[in-house]
Please model this.
Amino acid sequence: MASVLVADHAPLMRDAVGRALEHIKVVGEAGNATTLVSVAGEILPGLVVVGVYLKGFEIPRTLREVLGAGREVKVLVLALRDESQVLQGILQEGASSYIPNGISIVGFKEALISPDDRRASV
Model:
């Protein structure tokens, strides 16, 4: 995975995710869905890590725009709670996987390496 775009409403979370990635190149950040779509279109990251509560994150529309034009991008969604219906909807809309609350830093890194596992283990 060559590049990662981190999108979350909280600057602290964006910074923490970036630091957790260590040897993976973070090429951009976004604090809302509009910026996410814009930056993703400009830099074409290999992976987008997005917080489920990102400001303006309308799941179907935002995912369609990020995944649009047949781009080769994986989308990993960070979930604060286990909201099964919301998370299943995210997967149905094209997200590669989601990371549930309570995951360890090791589990998080493993999910980044294999984002198609649909749900990272806690």
Summary: The two ends are 22 Å apart (CA to CA). Residues 4-119 form a domain with the Rossmann fold fold (CATH 3.40.50.2300). The CA atoms of residues 97 and 117 lie 6 Å apart.
